[in-house]
What we know:
This protein is an alpha/beta fold. It folds into two domains: 71-361, Aldolase class I (TIM Barrel), CATH 3.20.20.70; 382-457. 45% of the residues lie in helices and 10% in strands. It has 19 helices and eleven strands. The chain has helices at residues 10-18, 25-36, 43-50, 55-73, 112-125, 144-155, 175-183, 198-204, 213-217, 219-225, 242-260, 290-303, 317-324, 363-372, 382-385, 390-397, 406-420, 424-439, 443-457; strands at residues 76-86, 129-134, 157-158, 161-162, 165-169, 186-190, 231-234, 266-268, 308-311, 330-332, 376-378. The strands form two sheets. Strands 1-2-5-6-7-8-9-10 form an eight-stranded parallel beta barrel, surrounded by six helices. It has a two-stranded antiparallel sheet with strand order 3-4. The termini are far apart.
Amino acid sequence: MHDTLGFIDEGEIVRVLAAPASKHAVEVRAVLAKARGLAGLGMEDVATLAAVSDPELLGEIFHTARAVKDQIYGPRLVLFAPLYVSNLCANDCTYCAFRARNKAVKRRALSQDEIRREVEILVDQGHKRILLVAGESYPHQGFQYVLDSIATIYSVKRGKGEIRRVNANVAPLTIDEFRALKASGIGTYQLFQETYHHATYQSVHLAGKKKDYDWRVSAMDRAMEAGIDDVGIGILFGLADWRFEILALMQHVRHLEARFGVGPHTISVPRLEPAIGSDIASSPPHAVSDVDFRKIVAILRLAVPYTGIIMSTRETPNIRRETFALGVSQISAGSRTNPGGYAEAEANPAQSSQFQLGDHRDLDEVVRDVAAMGYVPSFCTGCYRLGRTGHDFMDLAKPGAIKLHCDPNALSTFTEYLEDYAGPETRKVGEALVGSTLDNMDARQKEISEALVRKVKGGKRDVFV
Length: 465
Ligand code: SAM
Ligand code: SF4
């Protein structure tokens, strides 16, 4: 089956999966050698890695993913917070608590004042990046509500902090709406296909606009046509066979690269979590085990080495710790998935939350944990604000030159966090990490980084290269 644009070709996926994927060590190792060249992988290569179950070869996949992650991303881990502005929704996705027919959920669209309050709390925690999230139905202003919300988020200034990059995860838009979203100063437009498998897609989307597979799968084309360079795609794992899903995702990437000369900026890897009003969320038909989940992250890291991988607080602290090394480059922290969840500690947040969280720790605890593992928590928004998006970002990322920007910017924004927001224990761990990271840098990188860190310690904020 084809979507109307024709780039998700199920026939091709089924053929690739049906071909007896070689589990021979020689061929698996040949794919890993290719991956080390940082030029990405083809569908057959991905199928070969997906078929591996031998523990030794699996270990080699993980080892290679770690090396690739390290080479491109260094020790950085970018942090953000989701901001759920509304849980109104006209769709009926069987896996989501916000589905229209779920009467157990309290419906709410935050007012601009309430959004301001939420943002003040996030800024006071030290966040610099927000992912705006909403259901697919807006208050009387319609889509303008989202644009107003973005303007509100950017308008908040608190002490030494503010939100410097707003990304958005909202339903597919028309080209004109995407143009307006771009004009609002959006960073990445994010949208998950949920499942690329047509029949499964139809069976889990029962009502509303989201039933239309083609409208959704073509959203990134419209976003890019409208000038949004950075788009984030994703799969909701658990709905269909993960091997099928990642091959289809490769087709999506290939299509965007062929049409726009640049692939997605990020890939998200949510796994289905229990949600009230949903049976399927508690017993996913194609549940992904923890080992397979790590395998997925590692394979994606090797297949599309320059694309960021995002992991949310759906996952537990342990899974998060294990997958950082394999390729995750961005994580959310201290999240609430109910509108108003930061300002109001509800007695029972499940009544308006989208799904259950696996990681309940606050930002400071996550920062401390990540830093203690040797990763530099980064709040950097430099690339986007210097216009290094789309092609320009990829051109910069590809020769590894990103290290001369990202690593110094990570250290300067981390130092801002340590100076302005960290608790005493986090500050201690963090300062030691800044010191050892500087010591491990080459001379040029160190010089640039030290200059930035000095400026921050001297009271300057928002400095980047
Ligand atoms: N309403 C818009 C949409 O559906 O694209 C955007 C926001 S929706 C709240 C964000 C994402 O949450 C969905 O794309 C889906 O992948 C994810 N999600 C929904 N239910 C979930 C569940 N039970 N567990 C984990 N993720 C879930
Ligand atoms: Fe609505 Fe999005 Fe939830 Fe579907 S996933 S019910 S569209 S909020």
